[in-house]
Write a structure and sequence with these properties.
The protein is of the alpha+beta class. Helices cover 45% and strands 21% of the residues. The strands form 2 sheets. It has a 4-stranded antiparallel beta sheet, sandwiched between helices.
Length: 173
């Protein structure tokens, strides 16, 4: 039985459309995805699998697009766009096919369905490959409200490996 958790999502937003800045962390912030040297990420086997899942997200979730992301040693940053015109089409196409997924998407929004699918596929891969791995149970989202926010977030994502090394130098990791 799953614990009774309260959602941390904005109650005023349905997460079935929009642009989001997402952060997903590994369990206990372990460095599962690789290393960073000279501002460049060097992916582990599981990090490479994460990259493939992100780059192929539309094949599983046609309503989702990830135009920018970075894979860090112990977390991911993503910009995800959820196209609500395609979520409605997905909902109609799936009527009667997967009632459980319909219920989840109605309760938590298509954003959570997409993130859950990525996390699930990485966990399944790690289990099949017998790689020690785990996620934190939740993810952090920020609803991107305008182009200025989008630009600041994109700059942060692009510079994150360099920031990581600077923080490591000062002992903040």
């Amino acid at each position: 039985m799953k614990p009774n958790r309260q959602t941390v999502r904005a109650k005023w937003h349905d997460y079935n459309g929009g642009e989001y800045f997402i952060t997903i962390c590994t369990k206990d912030r372990e460095h599962f995805f690789g290393t960073i040297t000279n501002g460049e990420t060097h992916l582990s086997e599981i990090g490479s699998f994460v990259k493939t899942q992100i780059e192929n997200v539309q094949s599983h979730y046609p309503y989702a697009d990830i135009p920018l992301y970075v894979i860090m040693p112990n977390h991911l940053h993503l910009i995800i766009r959820i196209d609500n015109t395609k979520t409605n089409a997905s909902r109609k196409a799936n009527i009667g096919k997967d009632t459980n997924m319909q219920n989840v998407s109605n309760q938590q929004g298509w954003l959570s369905v997409c993130i859950g699918g990525i996390k699930s596929s990485v966990t399944k891969f790690s289990n099949e490959q017998k790689i020690h791995f785990g996620w934190q149970p939740r993810f952090h989202d920020h609803i991107i409200r305008n182009q200025d926010e989008m630009n600041r977030i994109a700059e942060y994502i692009e510079n994150n490996p360099v920031i990581w090394e600077t923080d490591c130098f000062y002992g903040t990791h």
